[in-house]
Specification:
The chain is an alpha/beta fold. It has helices spanning 13-17, 26-37, 50-60, 95-107, 131-136, 146-152, 164-178, 201-212, 229-234, 246-251, 264-272, and strands at 8-11, 41-45, 70-73, 78-81, 86-90, 113-115, 119-122, 139-142, 158-161, 183-188, 191-195, 219-223, 237-240, 254-255. Strands 5-4-3-2-1-12-13-14 form an eight-stranded mixed beta sheet. The protein has a six-stranded mixed beta sheet with strand order 8-7-6-9-11-10.
Length: 274
């Protein structure tokens, strides 16, 4: 197969770029550095807030390069320049939507949470609300008057953690009541995410390509879960991991030969990019 002319490559983190041990292999780091040397932008694109992505930025050692300085957080709701330490793109969910979803979650016996770059806020610390802060390696903080906090703040997404069966029921109820005013999906079976309908990993990566003067036909994205569907569908080249959700594989242009624990990303890049 002829090599693909990729100029910007976006990577989901958990179960895509990261192994099950939440590390990046030496081989993958080496391959990504070769991409940067060729002038290919490497963008970490995660559902995590910025603070949960920074440790991976350090693992890769690419932040001092023009081609490794951008990260996309909160499923593409924020694009951050790690050199200038500032956002170049951001989208927030309407306050009324946040309050409505929080109320529906409460009715279902669940708790919602919202995000700042390095803190997750919620009304009550439980096993479920602490799950994502622990996963991302950032602080989880209880807000005494959570509803007032929601009404007065600006947040890129809301997450409702809980038992998968309950979340599926809540997802259907949210969609029935709020329709196309929101995007509601499960990034993991136990995480239901709420964002603006005009926000997503693929939308943000195509925005970044335009911002950098890169042809959208030169954008590639790698992912494994349904929160990656937006970029797998919208980016020119969508690559699903061997270990990806079967539904994601169906809409991908390619599927890696190897999974995230066996250098699936690096193997694909060596075969089709470098």
């Amino acid at each position: 197969m002829e090599k693909i002319n990729a100029k910007l490559m976006a990577f989901d983190l958990d179960d895509t770029l990261l192994t099950s041990e939440r590390t990046v292999s030496e081989k993958t780091v080496s391959v990504l550095k070769k991409c940067v040397e060729k002038g290919i932008y490497i963008v970490l694109c995660s559902g995590r807030p910025e603070g949960g992505i920074f440790p991976i930025v350090e693992m890769l050692g690419l932040k001092d390069s023009e081609y490794g300085k951008y990260i996309a957080a909160i499923n593409g709701c924020s694009i951050y320049d790690v050199q200038k330490k500032e956002k170049v793109y951001s989208q927030n969910v309407d306050t009324e939507i946040l309050l409505k979803v929080d109320a529906l979650a409460e009715e279902a016996g669940l708790r919602s949470e919202v995000y700042a770059p390095d803190v997750v806020y919620f009304a009550e610390a439980t096993e479920w609300t602490m799950k994502d802060p622990i996963l991302c390696g950032i602080k989880g903080e209880v807000v005494p008057d959570y509803k007032k906090f929601l009404a007065e703040g600006f947040f890129p997404k809301m997450l409702v953690p809980g038992e998968p069966e309950k979340l599926l029921e809540l997802q259907e109820k949210i969609k029935a009541e709020l329709g196309e005013t929101i995007s509601a999906f499960t990034s993991k079976p136990y995480f239901l995410e709420i964002m603006r309908p005009d926000c997503g990993k693929g939308i943000s990566m195509n925005w970044l390509a335009d911002y950098l003067g890169i042809d959208r036909d030169c954008v590639m994205a790698f992912g494994d879960g349904m929160n990656d569907e937006n970029m797998i569908r919208l980016c020119k080249y969508g690559v699903a991991m061997q270990n990806a959700n079967p539904l994601l594989k169906e809409c991908a242009d390619f599927v890696t030969d190897l999974d995230n624990n066996h250098d699936g990303v690096a193997d694909f890049i060596e075969k089709y990019i470098l």
